[in-house]
């Protein structure tokens, strides 16, 4: 293929413009990103070579070489990793917008701080960081196993790039940065050393550079030799320590080292929320260094997100995404596991089935849960900040991790009618606060607290002084399917089924009154029910309303308004389900309608009022009404009539 010039996708160019013109506060990180890509590429070839040794082409002296060239004004980063085919270059390198592109630009906007380049690695668009320091970037690469064809890519970030075939002796990738004039300090030895030390010290492959020293020759006893002049000596030096921090005793690792290592493996620029470093002995021997991040990543709920821990076997890297090590609901945990029991040539298929891996997972999960439980008990406020970020994910565990359900249910937090907005309660505290007569734990699901607070479903619970939990995460609808009881108290939705909060005495007291109401409104209810037949399942008198005229109630296992909304938002089919219309016998509208009904069963107003009541009930639960035009017409007519009186 001859050299062709192509256009970047619009989004990519937008991002490049931003990188070129607005990101300048910490340019040093470009090197971290490129070294990290090289290190990933070496990880990949090593892994592939376990099953296909030919790929190595006899070249397994792993290294990432940095070559400053002051004459040319270029800085080169070269690796002997897996390399890329031409198609991969097109796909990966600054050409086609990746999922992180948009998210990265959004994050910069959200922070109202466009000058925050440290975010770049988190979004999987680290390569673009090259354009912070270079006004031209050339990349040459050859994929392992494809000795015939290499690829050369070049761009000055102006909307286009060129791509062509080239021949390359060595497998791997070489990136040449033509540094901007004012940034030539990136060619200085001290500068490169300090960046590598700061950001890439834990990279497990040597990051090397040729260092030339001028020396004066010395005699055998170290004495100066007159007139010998000077000689230049060049040697390859390793700039990083490559230390496996997880393999060292906890007492020897400083807080800063833990934090730097976290940033290195996570690409997060904030410190972790918590660090868990331990080793296990006995039936399963391994070392683990785990981190709980402080902020959720942008792609926490995206299906194609990168997840999993790094897996090593006796200090030898196996994979950087072993997602079998953690259950999905702990997918935000970052870190490294180094096992002493697994074979070195373990393949991905084996990992999925391996009992050792299952044992390790079990022990990691229990360590993470106990750590969280400690934080919750010792510093609740801190736990709350963590919960706000990751609570919705941890709740998934109640559904999927049956073995740890008991422990997980102690970790979950909810807002409630008795907490201030933004404050939380545990289930344990809820139960401790329950009045003696209260039998069940009540909750209401919905999309936000403010809407739920005005729900008519809460009226009777307010009147009784019973606390109701606000469940406002979409996942909560599934949580309550799994968490049906806590400490022998059933969890009960206030908008489902019947509510019966009265004691035996109260029941007796109210019996006659209820009987009278049934007599009084019986015929009206039958009318309403048949009028709304295609929209509601039943019309009945309510025991849960004290002020509002009506509300809709789902069956114990039926679909409520919140579930309907969630399914629609997920583009899922919403199963046909009708709810029960409950009417408040103490509301004046009931008396008015009964009077009309007694006078003339066929009065047109009765149907209109029934429609209006149903629409009101839909509106208060946040559901759309079928015919908004008719609704407004009826309300306007009523207003006119009322004013005319
Ligand atoms: P990220 O590394 O977070 O995925 P980048 O924009 O830095 O995002 O890189 C995009 C992709 O390009 C990488 O995922 C990888 O597939 C490929 N890539 C980048 N650098 C190299 C390299 N040195 N060797 C091989 N592949 C690379």
What is this structure's SSE topology?
Blueprint: E1 4-7, H1 10-22, H2 29-51, E2 64-69, E3 74-79, H3 86-92, H4 99-110, E4 134-142, E5 150-155, E6 160-166, E7 172-179, H5 189-200, E8 207-215, E9 231-238, H6 255-266, E10 274-280, E11 286-292, E12 309-313, E13 316-322, E14 334-339, H7 348-353, H8 355-378, H9 380-400, H10 405-411, E15 413-416, E16 425-426, H11 427-433, E17 441-445, H12 449-453, H13 459-464, E18 468-471, H14 476-482, E19 485-486, E20 489-493, H15 504-531, E21 536-541, E22 550-553, H16 561-569, E23 579-583, H17 588-599, H18 604-620, H19 628-644
Parallel strand pairs: 2-8, 12-14, 17-18, 17-20, 21-23
Antiparallel strand pairs: 1-6, 2-3, 3-7, 4-5, 4-7, 5-6, 8-9, 10-11, 11-14, 12-13, 15-16, 15-18, 19-20, 22-23
Structure description:
The chain has 645 residues and is an alpha+beta fold. The chain folds into four domains: 4-217 and 230-238, Heat Shock Protein 90 (2-Layer Sandwich); 245-381, Ribosomal Protein S5, domain 2, CATH 3.30.230; 412-493, Rossmann fold, CATH 3.40.50.11260; 508-556 and 575-644, Heat shock protein 90, C-terminal domain (Four Helix Bundle (Hemerythrin (Met), subunit A)), CATH 1.20.120.790. Helices cover 38% and strands 20% of the residues. It is built from 19 helices and 23 strands. The strands form four sheets. Strands 1-6-5-4-7-3-2-8-9 form a nine-stranded mixed sheet, with helices on one face. Strands 16-15-18-17-20-19 form a six-stranded mixed sheet. A five-stranded mixed sheet has the order 10-11-14-12-13, with helices on both faces. Helix 8 (355-378) runs antiparallel to helix 9, helix 8 packs parallel to helix 10 and helix 9 (380-400) crosses helix 14. It is elongated and about 125 Å long. The protein starts with a strand and ends with a helix. The model has no long low-confidence stretch (mean pLDDT 89). The structure holds adenosine-5'-diphosphate. The site of adenosine-5'-diphosphate has 16 residues, from helix 2.
């Amino acid at each position: 293929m001859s050299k062709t010039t192509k256009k970047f996708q619009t989004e990519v160019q937008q991002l490049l413009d931003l990188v070129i013109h607005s990101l300048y506060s910490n340019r040093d990180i470009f090197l971290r990103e490129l070294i990290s890509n090289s290190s990933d590429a070496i990880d990949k070839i090593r892994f592939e070579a376990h099953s296909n040794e030919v790929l190595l082409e006899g070249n397994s002296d792993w290294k990432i070489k940095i070559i400053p060239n002051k004459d040319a004004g270029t800085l080169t980063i070269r690796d002997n990793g897996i390399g890329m085919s031409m198609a991969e270059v097109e796909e990966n390198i600054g050409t086609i917008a990746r999922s992180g592109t948009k998210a990265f630009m959004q994050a910069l906007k959200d922070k109202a701080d466009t000058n925050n380049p440290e975010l770049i690695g988190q979004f999987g668009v680290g390569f673009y960081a090259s354009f912070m320091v270079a006004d031209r970037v050339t990349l040459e690469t050859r994929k392992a196993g494809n000795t015939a064809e290499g690829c050369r890519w070049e761009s000055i970030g102006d909307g286009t790039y060129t791509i062509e075939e080239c021949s390359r002796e060595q497998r791997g990738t070489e990136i040449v940065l033509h540094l901007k004039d004012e940034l030539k300090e990136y060619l200085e030895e001290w500068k490169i050393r300090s960046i590598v030390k700061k950001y890439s010290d834990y990279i497990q492959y040597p990051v090397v550079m040729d260092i030339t020293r001028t020396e004066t020759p010395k005699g055998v006893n170290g004495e100066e030799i007159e007139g010998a002049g000077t000689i230049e000596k060049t040697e390859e030096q390793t700039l990083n320590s490559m230390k496996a921090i997880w393999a060292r005793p906890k007492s020897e690792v400083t807080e800063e080292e833990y934090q730097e290592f976290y940033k290195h493996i996570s690409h997060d620029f904030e410190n972790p929320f918590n660090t868990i470093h331990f080793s296990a002995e006995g039936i399963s021997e391994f070392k683990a260094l785990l981190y709980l991040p402080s902020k959720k990543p942008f792609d926490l709920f995206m299906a194609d997100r990168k997840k999993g821990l790094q897996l090593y076997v006796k200090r030898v890297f196996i994979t950087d995404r072993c997602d079998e090590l953690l259950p999905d609901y702990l997918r935000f945990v970052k870190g490294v596991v180094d096992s002493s029991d697994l074979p070195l040539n373990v393949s991905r298929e084996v990992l999925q089935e391996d009992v050792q891996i299952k044992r390790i997972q079990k022990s990691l999960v229990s360590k993470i849960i106990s750590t969280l439980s400690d934080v919750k008990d010792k510093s609740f406020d801190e736990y709350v900040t963590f919960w706000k970020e990751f609570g919705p994910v941890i709740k998934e565990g109640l559904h999927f991790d049956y073995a740890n359900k008991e422990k997980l249910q102690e970790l979950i937090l909810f807002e409630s009618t008795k907490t201030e907005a933004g404050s939380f309660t545990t289930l344990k505290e809820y139960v401790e606060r329950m009045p003696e007569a209260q039998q069940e734990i009540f909750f209401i699901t919905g999309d936000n607290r403010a809407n739920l607070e005005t729900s008519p479903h809460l009226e009777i619970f307010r009147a009784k002084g019973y606390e109701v939990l606000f469940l406002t995460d979409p996942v909560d609808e599934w949580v309550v399917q799994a968490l049906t009881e806590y400490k022998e108290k059933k969890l009960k939705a206030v908008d489902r089924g019947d509510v019966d909060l009265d004691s035996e005495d109260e029941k007796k007291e109210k019996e006659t009154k209820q009987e009278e109401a049934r007599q009084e409104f019986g015929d009206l209810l039958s009318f309403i029910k048949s009028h709304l037949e295609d929209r509601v399942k039943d019309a009945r008198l309510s025991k849960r309303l004290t002020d509002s005229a009506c509300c809709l109630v789902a069956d114990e296992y039926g679909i409520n308004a919140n579930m309907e909304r969630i399914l629609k938002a997920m583009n899922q089919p919403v199963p046909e389900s009708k709810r029960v219309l409950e009417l408040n016998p103490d509301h004046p509208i009931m008396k008015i309608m009964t009077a009309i009904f007694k006078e003339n069963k066929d009065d047109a107003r009765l149907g209109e009022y029934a429609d209006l009541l149903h629409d009101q009930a839909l509106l208060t639960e946040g559901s759309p009404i079928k015919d908004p035009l008719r609704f407004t017409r009826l309300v306007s007519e009523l207003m006119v009539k009322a004013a005319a009186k």
